[in-house]
Amino acid sequence: MAVDEEGVRGAQGADADASAKARAVAPRNEGVRDAPEPGSATGLGLVKGLAVTLKHALRPSITQQYPQEKPDLPPRTRGVIALKQENCTVCYKCSRECPDWCIYIDAHKETHEPASGGRARSAKILDRFAIDYALCMYCGICVEVCPFDALFWSPEFEYAEYDIVELTHEKEKLEEWCYTVLPPPELEVGAEESS
Amino acid sequence: MIAESGVSFVNQWFDEYWLVLITKTAIVLVFFLVAPLGVGYAEHKVLAHMQARLGPMYAGVFHGWAQLMADGVKFVQKEDVIPAAADRWVFSMAPAVALVPYIALFVVIPFSDEIFILNLDVGIFFVMAITSINVIGVLMAGWSSANKFSLIGALRAAAQLIAYELPLVLAAAAVVMQAATLSMIGIVEAQDRYWFVLTQPIGFFIFLVASLAELTRPPFDMPVADSEIIFGAYTEYTGLKFAFFLLAEYGGIVALAAVASVLYLGGYLPPPLLEFIPDPLWMAAKIGALSFLIIWLRATYPRLREDQLQRVSWLTLIPLALAQIMVVGFLKVAF
User: Per-residue pLDDT tens for B75-134?
Assistant: First the structure.
């Protein structure tokens, strides 16, 4: 047993020595503050602490009193997924990518005879587009994957229901939420404009 | 027992012994039930604002002023649970034993040279004696609960109270030496030229730190350290009994703030040039300021470790307090 331990230590010994050397040579980690030297306590830190709490007490508090006061949400808030029906081509990409299959899409094909003659044009008409928010895990893959910008993140979040069944919202409701989508925020300074 | 200076306002109203007794008891009880509510509400609000929050805003419509009354109603409605393994009588008696000393303490707090209940010759001695009873209630609670967390909390409380009773008494003793009286009103009147905080700032500091520990308030709240031992000796308590312990804590804040104002801040005496504001308001203002300080310290400092707590007392506060007594003694003899 003792010999085994010695052997293990011997094998690791070289590595340990090397890393110790590397540590000695490497510059000090700039972000990490040193622990105070023992005996260097002046009590100044205690006074600073009191100043911090007092400063916060004198500032207005940052609480937003929610039911009376609507929260001030950032433009990218992932509240609920909204649908712009006009943009949807019924490609089913969203429902196929959805990890928990919470998007229901029904559609039918219509053909239109062109006025000037020639081959009839077909179009897919959306009959049903529903998202079951009891299943949705707000991953946003559907929004990412939508090729025609039909799905958006809306900051709306007050859609709790008393029955789990009611949480499946149809396209009319999803369209309503579309009008609560906030414009995207301005680019940060130095950010690259996409082409 | 009764010192000569001034006559209590109750005695000026009535002559009948029983009438005086009942009125005084009623006044003390009402004050004891109202003042801690004020401090409790202040704690809710001050702590909240120091953490950039608002605190209670709904109860009583205006800034949640009735929050503590709502809490009181809630406590009354709760089931009074006594654990099966608990020692029933001791368990039920403990909140009363913890609470009564602080009620009794208010008897000797003067709000002016006429507004007081009793002016005992041994006022400050009475205060020191009666505050140390509180720990017996805590020990009873911890022992009778049949719960290891309660027991650890109670023993921590006992160790803490033994360690901090001493600096508290020694600091008060230095004041008594300077004032040459034990009577609370006498100590206040002895400060009519200057407050004792000017001559004994270290004593004031020791007294404040020791009172925080006495009250088991943060940063000295190891006996109820909720992250380690749930709620210490009060773990098994529910409903009104628990409310009594809370009331004892907030009553204790008012009581020790009042005693500290009497000993060091000139009690009901107004500062120079501000004599037009009546005395009782000054006393209330000083109690309020010290209570604010106690709340402020809670918002600022983390909890000490048990051994750090003992070191602070035995290695810093007690030697400082003894040195303070020696210096006061020398000066007293020299001048």
Answer: 889 888 888 888 888 998 999 998 888 888 888 888 877 777 777 888 888 988 888 888
- Cα separation, B110 vs B7, whole angstroms: 11
User: What's A181's DSSP letter?
Assistant: P
Write down the ipTM of this complex.
0.72
The residue in chain B having the minimum alpha-carbon distance to the alpha carbon of residue A57 is: B50
Distance CA B268, CA B115 (A): 10
Domain assignments of chain B as residue spans, ordered by start: 9-334
Both tokens assigned to B108: 């000797």
The shortest C-alpha distance from B194 to chain A (Å) reads 26
Neighbouring residues of B169: CB distance < 8 A, sequence distance ≥ 6: B128
The Cα–Cα gap between B246 and B71 comes to 11
Residue B88, chain A, CB below 8 Å: the answer is no
Testing the interface with A: which of B300, B303, B311, B315 to mutate, by most A Cβ within 10 A?
A: B300
Chain B residues in contact with A38 by the CB 8 A cut-off are: none
How many residue pairs bridge chain A and chain B with CB atoms within 8 Å of each other? Answer: 34
Q: What is the CA radius of gyration of chain B?
A: 20
Structure pTM?
0.76
Residue B149, token pair as written in the block: 């967390």
Any A CB within 8 A of B289 CB: no
Domains with residue ranges and CATH for chain A: 80-178 (3.30.70.3270)
